[in-house]
Fold these 4 entries.
Entry 1:
Amino acid sequence: MITVAKLAVYPLLVWLILGRMMQLDAFWVNVGVLIACLPSAGNIYVLAQRHDADPQQVSAAILLSTIVSVVSFPCVAWLALD
Amino acid sequence: MISFFLLSLPIFAVIGVGWAATRTRLVSQGALDALNAFSFRFALPALLLRLIAGQPLRQSFNPEFYTGYLASGAIIFVLVLGTSRVVAARDLSTAGAHATTATVSNLGFLGPPLMLAFFGERGAGPLAMAILAEVMVLLSVGSVLMGANGGPKSGIGSLILRGTMFNPIVVAIVLGQLLRALVSHCPRQLRASSAFSAVRPTRRHSSRSAGPSLCNVSTAEPPLPRA
């Protein structure tokens, strides 16, 4: 769920808000979408471990999002830019 | 299509190589920590400072983009927080960790190389805005929620302060924008600095010759790949 939200729902919402609702320049919309579909940050694991906030699942989500984005990032880039 | 893969694959491959080097103990934990610290505290801030200071302010400071991007992140944050808390019945700390993981991107290490590869140096402006939205706001709120079930606690004020004043990447972005706002042309020392020349891999994708001055990169066309 976390990885789907990060790599699919988040970029889609950025596209809807920046592109459809706010109608910003295509350059800003495209960069925003591509930034949003980057994998989760590694330092969240450090915080989750420090606070004992489900570090295992956070770690798994970071790893999974990084692996999936090897394929998903260029696919989104292709959809957005081509 | 394949050109998009070819553009991003080497950057992800570096992560894979780093992971393999750690697993095979080719790199010691001490060296890894030192490399991480150097990248986060010196190399990345220097790169961002140079990129932001070298662009017109309107290309690195866009309040509309910042508002829209932050709103998108906040909506996803609340949705994941609510789903984890209510549907999955997790405690607030865990739900906060899930929401933060679903919204805070790997902007420090993957953001600059990928955005530079796909958009050229113009990509640094939106990237800076996104860092300010995700690191300053979402990560700070997430940290407070993660600390909700005990352990070391910090107030939202001190976390935002730490996330801004003591975060080298955020400081570099703000300083870069201030520098650009204060001087009409970026300092010659910054332009001439060869110390940062290694961070210009995108030039090979551009039709322009290598080594342009920083002050006119804003006019450069982004080196978009053709599928």
Note: Helices of chain A lie at 2-21, 26-36, 43-50, 55-81.
Entry 2:
Amino acid sequence: MREEHGPSPTIWPLGFAVGISVALVGLIVNPEWISTIGGGIAIVFGFLWARDATAEMRAQTPVVQAEVREMTPAEAAALPAGAGEAAMAPPPPGQRYPRSRFLEGATLGLGGVIGAIVTVPVVGVALLPPFIRQRGHTVDLGPLDAYPVGKWFIATFTSDPGEGEVSRRTAFVRNNGVTNNVPSFTIISNRCAHLGCPVQANGPTGAILGEKNVTEHTANGAVLLRPVVPAGFGCPCHGGQYDTEGNRTAGPPVRALDRYSFDIKNGRLTLLSTFSVSHVVGTGAQAKIYKYKLANPGDHIDGPEEWFYPLQPPHH
Amino acid sequence: MAIRRSPSKAQVRREQMLAAVNYPIDWLEERSGLVGGVRYFLFRNVPSDINWMQTLGSAALTAFIVQAVTGVILAMYYRPTPNEAYSSIQNITDHVTMGWLLRGMHKWGASVFIILMFLHMGRVFLFGAYKYPRELNWIVGVLILVLGLTEGFTGYLLPWDQTAYWASVVGINLNGTAPFLGPWLAQFLRSGQEISGDTLSRFYSLHMLVIPGGIIALITLHLYLVVRLGVTSPPWSKEAAGAEVVEEASPLRAGLTRPVPHGSTGGRD
């Protein structure tokens, strides 16, 4: 005796899930190949799964009887002689897949396939490019001689000369000298940790100090170095204030100012990438920097509020 | 025997003129039914005691149409690239014939559109016009309002001056502080980690193609629902559903009738 039961378990959903996982992992690892492969796996297994799941339904096609009725005498009489029989043999009894349902399925299925083929690249191009292949730029800030030990400079540079003026950025640079044969620089980004306005140095610059601005010509075009003696940094937009290590001292910012990591290449100061900082203890070469992955301005990177931003979009 | 007078020359000419005017209209109507449709839309019944407050929706629609038309013309002169955006705006303002006027209409019209949407929303709220069966139209209206505000946000960057740039930086980063998906939303709007030329062209596309398309679709749905469900009477209406039918007020007193709360006898007991 057979019991009523649901569809027997299949492994197709498992393969579908694997495909989706591969596609998602690929988004982070290698969007071009791994994601495509994962998507392909998901589509194939999804199709097989759908076919399996609907097999029972598709098998139970209703039995369609040919429409038959007795002719009225009048109709019979109206028939021309010799035409009394059906012009076409009635369809054989048994299961038959109705034409209308086939057309309905074909229209929906084909339409769906065409729609998907058209939609995937459109949605993909609309959504993916901001998140993949985000490359950082190394920036040549000129020779080390341009940075006397202990002096602050406001360095203005184009991070991507190909992009033009729109990539102009500003950093506050101080040479902390060499400790244990390791050169130390404090390089603070001027992007406010509140909402991203340009932070300014609170202190005299250039002419007031009696010092001249220096323009270094580097691989990144002209880098302007303006000497400054900052008491701290302040944001013009909403009044966030920071000390000279970038720690927040007042106002709305949620963390310290971001910093640049750097390298010395052929005796030239080179900026590598940006990272976020919750706070800094100590100063200069002795500073202990609490370093985090680069985060959006206004996003908490430590404390309970950090849980509001569990997944940061991919950065370089 | 009746004498049949032949029609005068003027009469004949008038009939000919009428036929000439009617011919293309009839041609269109016979093939599309559009004339009847427009007539149905324009001459449908509305409550007799609607008032001027109920023109705020049409006013907002007019403001949107002005924005759409002026925006299309501005797009003929505007260049959404970092090096040319600001100078093309200056060119529109200073050199294109009446460009200053067109840009002014678009700039100030944006605020007018937003203000009118809010006034319209206030009217709908105070008149209780959002109640059954019109809840869906309230929802559609809210979506239009949100898209309208998004238009303001994306359009603000386009002049590409210091105000535009830094306001957009702040606006994008505000989006970035939304919990969970905020950082992703910010990176999407910015088209990457940093503001670049892509951000400008992205905002331009959103501002002039994507969002207006959505607004037009939603306005169509909004109007369809207005026509289908009818216009609401003011809350003080004597014609309100369930209210007693009252005799028409004397024309002299039209507009002077004081609202009578439901359930009270209006001090006539």
Note: The mean pLDDT of chain A is 86.
Entry 3:
Amino acid sequence: MAGIIAYGAYVPKYRLSRDLIAHAWNSSSIGGEKAVAGYDEDTVTMAIEAATDCLATNPSSLVDGLFFASTTAPYKEKLCSTLMATVLDLRRDIITSDFSNSLRAGTNAFKAAIDAIDSKTAKQILVAATEARLGAAQSEFEQNSGDAAAALLFGHANTIANIVGSFSVSDEFTDNWRMERDTFVKSWDSRFANVYGYTSSISGAVSVVLEKYNFTPKDFAKLVLYANNPREQADMAKKLGFDTKTQLSDPLFTTVGNAGAALAPLMLIAALEQSKAGDRILWVSYGEGAHAFILEVTPDIAKMKGRRGVKYYIDSKTMLPTYQKYVQFRELMTTEEAKVFPSPSSIPLFWRDKKSFLAFYGSKCKRCSLIMHPVQRICYRCHSKDEYEEVKLARSGKVFTYAEDYLADVPVLPQISATIDLDDGTRVFLRLSECEAQNPSDPPRKIGMPVEMTFRKLSDTSGFRNYYWKAKPPRGGIA
Amino acid sequence: MKGVLDRVAIVGAGCCKFGENFLQSRYDLIIDAVYEALEDARIELKDIQAVWVSTQHEMGGASIVSDALKLGNIPISRCENFCSSGTDTFRNACFAVAAGMYDRVLVVGYEKVKDMAVRGLPTPPFGWGGHPILFADAPPVSFAFAATKYMEKYGVDRTPLAKVSVKNHHNGSLTPKAFLQREVTLEQVLSAPLVAWPLGLFDCCGVADGAAAVIITRREIAKSFRDNFITVRGIGLSMSVARPMERPDYEYIGFTETEIAAMQAYEQAGITNPRKEIDCAEVHDCFSITEIINYEDLHFCERGQGWRFINDGISTLEGELPVNMDGGLKCFGHPVGATGLRMIYEIYKQLQGKCERRQVKNAQTGLAHTLGGVPRNSCVVILSN
């Protein structure tokens, strides 16, 4: 029987109060706040954070497949799962696939993973659902949407929760959509969508799954139910016969927002964080139909203690001070072109050095043990030639020295660059993320600051996405 | 390692007005500098036997000089080595003369940057690291790394850095060919907009158009050109092993490149106490912090004492060891390919006593120093009258 071996989540550090959006447009606020991806984040980088959390104690060499699910992938043509697999240092003989085009892209991927496990074509499959959808200015969806990622590792041994049943319905319905060239999510009349889309699909899936496996609502500790907003969720739960006070999962509406294909998995992880062995969970996603899964939590759930998960990431946050900052972060306005010399990028350069720059490896000299990044053939210290092994670099370190660049060609200034001593002794030169500028008249405050490595988007130079690692203060630490 | 370079003498030098020369093409800059040098040496263009050209940003720079001067049928080569392009080009030309191959060699450096609506210096393809993500952080960032570390290590604030800029702006105000000729106050420097913290606008040198040229010959025949020729006594050049930001164990205290280049040049020139034996110096003040660190690397003072060197006024025009008499990169301007030759021009004129209001008394031995890259290299030239 397939089940979940581990989970990991990611919610960006930045939050925007919906009151600020309402204030910007002189409209009414729907309350709470939404999670906003930083200017150097996209669905791939967020998925990698969630997947890293998920794989914290699981050797990456055991993973036989990686599925990426999102309606907001950075590429229309080109897999994100292969990029993720390289960054996460997975094996080459694995299956990779991207799932897209629907709010249930996430659970479509989970269904495929579960089927692959059940049919024994793979022992472990990692699935990451990730989303950063945009609502048009002044639209309800601008307030409603939020950015986040969730990762689940599926397998058949050492599971924290087993999938004991599932049922799916497929309905042709146009609820939310984006056409080829659309940036912002579109929708029709919300009452129409609620009655003939959401309610119809969810009840169609739930009624059958309960009957098929011979359960009633009382048999569940939790109902994890996707919904566009809390009211829609509560109304649906009542219709299905669940107690909204004791059984209904947190819709994450006031803390994260509607994270599209990532929302249902994120809600499941939030529910698992509060579950104990023996709990039964009904997990329901939506999008041109619905998936309903029945899960039973095992005693191994205790192993997830110390996982970052949803709670850690929701609790550590920085509120964006203005709506303009959000516009800047999501690059929603055309700004003056920076007056800097163009510096092109190169696909062969990236490809050739992917071990150094994507998987973040260095070369360790076999003679004198010095580690250098990127990989070097000749040792800086002892000049040995081609006598090195490629080693995965430490993912944390301390700032040695730094500068705060106020003229860099990036959406949010200053751009902070630093020389960092990693915990394994490697000296690396990186940019800092999620880090505020210091008071100019203060002494250098960031020297010695602890940082952890994070995979980020640099730019779209030369027409493709350029990624590299950055360093950031641990969440909840010094900012 | 005694040098062979004292076989070489400078007999002519020229320098155009540096600045935002919107009225001038790259050819105009070259023509102005070269013709001043020719007139100074009392020779004509047809007397030149070989040319060495310094430009950092322009591929094919040798042919640009040929186009400008309508000069052909002789060897013309281009040399590039970051901001040390000018000094290193001079060094290579000196070897040709010292070897006895040529008697009349023109060395010219230029850079035309103001035809482009961009700020800062051009970036090579794939950035300074040769790779799109070993990134092309602008030069202020690289030197701000050193400033941050210096401030932390010695517990100083931004004030000594600002004093370097105030001094060089004063010197620039006495220099008719300088780009920036206005004095500034300490308060202006400290409150200027930030470029790359801890460096503000006035901590950064002025990017300018410019060209400078010298004519060199064998010292033994230099008298046939002029009595007050200037002798080359030593040139050192050093490239560091790796970029400072990734160099293992690098403490960011001092630029090793400068120290090694200076030691080479001092040994060739027989200098053992630079503080006493150097009468004036043009050093690479691309940023205020760089000049402070240069004092230490060139052994003008002890390690960690550079900020006191500027605080105590030792490097002012009236001080014990005047530095950047013409305003330096800060105010004379920094067209990269021309910079090293502009420094040599200034030292040449100082040693001939022709610098009027900024003249250093009894200047007999002078030093020109460039620091190239992030940094990666340094070239130190010692000249005597």
Note: Chain B has a mean pLDDT of 95.
Entry 4:
Amino acid sequence: MTARPAIERIDAYPTRSIGGFSVRAGRPLPFGATPVPGGVNFSVYSNNATAMTLVLYRAGEPEPMAELPFPDSYVIGGVYSMTVFDLDAEGIEYGYRAYGPFDPERGHRFDPSVVLADPYARLMSDASTGPRRSRVALDDFDWEDDSPLRLPHEDLVIYELHARGFTKSPTSGVSAPGTYAGLIEKIPYLRELGVNCVELLPIFEFDENDNPRSHPVTGEPLSNYWGYNTVAYFAPKASYASTGRYGMQADEFKNLVKQLHKAGIEVILDVVFNHTAEGNEHGPTISFKGLDNATYYMLTPDGHYYNFSGTGNTLNCNNPVVRGFVLDCLRYWASEYHIDGFRFDLAAILGRGPDGSPLWNPPLLESLAYDPVLRDCKLIAEAWDAAGLYQVGSFPNYCRWSEWNGRYRDTVRRFVKGDTGVAGDLATRMVGSPDMYGRRGTSATINFVLCHDGFTLNDLVSYNEKHNYANGEDNRDGDNNNQSWNCGHEGPTGDPEIIALRGRQMRNILMILLASQGVPMILAGDEVGRTQQGNNNAYCHDSPLTWFDWDLVERNADQLRFVQKAIRFRQAHPVLRRGPASAVSWHGVRQWTADWSEGCRVLAGMFDAGADDCVYVAANAHWEGHSLELPTPPAGTAWHLFADTSAPSPLDAHEPGAEPPLQNQSRVEVGPRSVVVLVAHRVQVDQRDNGKEE
Amino acid sequence: MRLSTEVRGDVTVIALEGSLDSRTAPQAQQEIEALFPEEGLVLLDLSGTTYMSSAGLRVLLLIYRRAQNGRARLALTGVPEEVHDIMAATGFLDFFTVAGSVEDGVKALTV
């Protein structure tokens, strides 16, 4: 049975001709370019423009094939809309000329000599095949029964990865390296690793060539690899699609989401609404600047750009028009791409008013928190900005927003490298930071020690200082406060003791992360010890320096296996994910007696949710081993050994559920700079008779 | 875009020649549907296609959906390498039985 044919629409016919094309008054909603029966509906808005022209190109050609001014009767409010018939939706590109005052002091920068990209463009052409222009997307992808997964937030193990860098290296062995399709081929790896959520660095269309610097040694131009400079907020990055040159990046990205969902893996997008790729008054006019500069950007009273983002401009997020734009955009990704959540870059800016002052109840953040389309989406804030607004623990949250917990990162780094005076703070961080998120449960904190921005895990334990010379700024760029320790030698070494210590330190960090309440996030590659040679700000390198080196999977198979087991262990123990913090008791060298004194480097926590879910985590950041008195496990159970980072592989982590019993039930030895994790399992009666209890 | 049809045993083989893009897609879809039997086995032979765009792939998927809703079974053969790669990357390929030759396609459908 085929579907019954619909009655033909009476608006499927043109009413007049403009610029040689048959047209009729368009539909203002939805904004953007939408295929409709017989043609394409174009809709664009600007409250301050005085006139607008639609510019059509044959794909890839330098000159327009037609310019169609919008007649007055095609304008409703500030919205210009027109349906153009007999257009080959796949074969055209388009843009707009917006007319209005050029009066920078009043914030207006209209310039009809520039053909502007559509802010609502759902597709952008691949810049490697011609000019980067707006295109029309076919939106009838066959999702079958796919929907966002709605995994409980606190059960996530997030894996932060770069959609290109993950498979760009020839070592990846995929058929289309550096693409969405290539990433699909690595889904089995992600499943084996055990993560259930990938957080993708920006995949909205951006300008990868936006970098004025060149490599100080090779002289090659540096790039903008990370992609925190959005050009088009509704368009998936064309060059990340193996089918980008055919304009099929939307289908390819949707297929990636669908396949990840089939594997039980959620997709979170890193979105950049704090600034755009247009820079300040010296930057290019691409879209917003020419459409309605005074609306889209935060401007000083005399028309200059506020720069809270550190990149030249600041998107005027709490202007009502921009707020609508952001909401439209996120709704689109949630509904059209089945995205499971969003991580907001420099999100503190999203809480600033049009004059830059922080708002106590930012309308944008409130709208996103209560929006029905976004209801099940995870909303994660990077709760600071580049102008000193630091809101970790105080970000306006509506019991809905979670935060990258920068304090968790700093505390774990300091404890593991052996700083004193942080054991107490570590205890607080390991139970979901209740001092910051007490009333909101463990999903409010995204616990991480490493992310794309900073050292990799391997480099955190291999370098005391950043080594950013290759970034072309004489090592001035990048954070100086890394809380890193090189274990006795700066950079690569052949010293087996240092190598062993670094391996242990990496496992210590990963084990603490995966045994902490809150949502852990792992930086892709850290599970196999990926290095960036000490570069802690590698945003500008699209090269083997930043790409995932798949040879490491074999070379560091032991560490990978450790992480796989630690993730499975976490998933087997709800008490590590959901809390409550009150289920955790603290211990030290003596049971029930945690040592909170300044000089202490030992901390042990018993996460006790009863006989079936009780875990003991002991972390020793001292260079000497310690013997710890064990608290009694729940009645009817005995302690079993899950992990000991001082043990040689494969004894450093046992199979979750099949951990061997601990011989001595009253004490455990925790080696120098090591973490030991025990789990309570029920014991058979005969075993208990022969055991060492009592 | 040119279509031809041939019956091999129980299988109707429909061969496409030329370019399948948004200009030719609507007509191609109509013509394929006209040639498509109400029930039975259909093999689409794409070995003569020179270009297939996003809209062309959608025609294939529409035909597949039509077959699925009716009592027909559909397979593809002669998929040019480039088209195959696009179909694989975008997930279209997952919907189809793909055979290396008309003979294999006939066999795959009649087993």
Note: The mean pLDDT of chain B is 90.
